[in-house]
């Protein structure tokens, strides 16, 4: 396997964070009678790594998907870099270019090579010249450790390699924030660390990240803040050391007792 481009340097949490970049205020979301998000307030600061954890059905993925309007909201506001999330049209497309997203499934174009998958967004959405897009794509593929796979089709790659290509594809748009919706949940156990190592490298480089995950080791290693959700609400949030050693809510203590002892 190619060496992963994880940067040496201080731990991600030693890097300072800046001004508010993503702000959710009073966000509500219903799916029919199900109240999935209930008055959610959350601020992610520039350079901050926020990890969202909680039981299945707690609203974590829905929250993540509202930030680039893959899911609409019923009430409240979401702003990115001071601008409220547009409802549709070109303004929404421009804003989505600022928000990179990596899903559980890799969502790569099966009929295009790895290199084509990474260059497509910048050339079509941002008008980047093909040569410049290819140069940047190869730089990013080296960064995530799959440059030697550039001319293969996604089906010829392992799941871990495909997810790293998906990360490179999102980075190619030069986003202000990266959203990760359980990026390792579809991977075999031996492939999880190669993806998490890339994510730790991004955090160390100062990328603003909001990560929905069940990987508690990543939360301890890379997060500035852990946000615990249950029943569509943020129940508790704290730095990783505080959260994992001294959670204040009974719901968080119960959740941790189940996942940390198995």
Automatic annotation (TrEMBL):
GO terms for molecular function: ATP binding; ATP hydrolysis activity; ATPase-coupled polar amino acid-transporter activity. The keyword Nucleotide-binding applies. It is found in: Cell membrane. Residues 22-256 form the ABC transporter domain. Its main location: membrane. Gene3D superfamilies: P-loop containing nucleotide triphosphate hydrolases (3.40.50.300). It is an enzyme of class 7 (translocase). It catalyses: a polar amino acid(out) + ATP + H2O = a polar amino acid(in) + ADP + phosphate + H(+). InterPro entries: AAA+_ATPase, ABC_ATPase_HisP-typ, ABC_transporter-like_ATP-bd, ABC_transporter-like_CS, MetN_ABC_transporter-like, P-loop_NTPase. PANTHER family: AMINO ACID IMPORT ATP-BINDING PROTEIN, GLUTAMATE_ASPARTATE IMPORT ATP-BINDING PROTEIN GLTL. This is ABC-type polar-amino-acid transporter. It comes from Cellulomonas fimi (strain ATCC 484 / DSM 20113 / JCM 1341 / CCUG 24087 / LMG 16345 / NBRC 15513 / NCIMB 8980 / NCTC 7547 / NRS-133).
């Amino acid at each position: 396997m190619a060496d992963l481009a994880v940067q040496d340097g201080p731990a991600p949490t030693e890097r300072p964070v800046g001004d508010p970049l993503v702000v959710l205020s009073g966000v509500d979301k219903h799916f029919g009678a199900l109240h999935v998000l209930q008055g959610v307030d959350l601020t992610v600061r520039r350079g901050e790594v926020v990890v969202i954890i909680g039981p299945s059905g707690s609203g974590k993925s829905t929250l993540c998907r509202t930030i680039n309007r893959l899911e609409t909201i019923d009430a409240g506001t979401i702003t990115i870099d001071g601008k409220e999330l547009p409802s549709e049209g070109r303004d929404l497309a421009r804003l989505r270019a600022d928000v990179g997203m990596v899903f559980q499934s890799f969502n790569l174009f099966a009929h295009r090579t790895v290199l084509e998958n990474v260059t497509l967004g910048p050339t079509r959405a941002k008008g980047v010249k093909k040569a410049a897009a290819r140069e940047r794509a190869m730089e990013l593929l080296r960064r995530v450790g799959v440059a030697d796979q550039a001319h293969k089709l996604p089906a010829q790659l392992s799941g871990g390699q495909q997810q790293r290509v998906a990360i490179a594809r999102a980075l190619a748009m030069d986003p202000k924030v990266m959203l990760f919706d359980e990026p390792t949940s579809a991977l075999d156990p031996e492939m999880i660390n190669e993806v998490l190592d890339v994510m730790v490298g991004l955090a160390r480089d100062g990328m603003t990240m909001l990560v929905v995950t069940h990987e508690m080791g990543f939360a301890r290693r890379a997060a500035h803040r852990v946000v615990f959700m249950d029943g569509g609400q943020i129940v508790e949030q704290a730095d990783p050391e505080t959260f994992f050693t001294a959670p204040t809510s009974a719901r968080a203590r119960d959740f941790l007792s189940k996942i940390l002892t198995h």
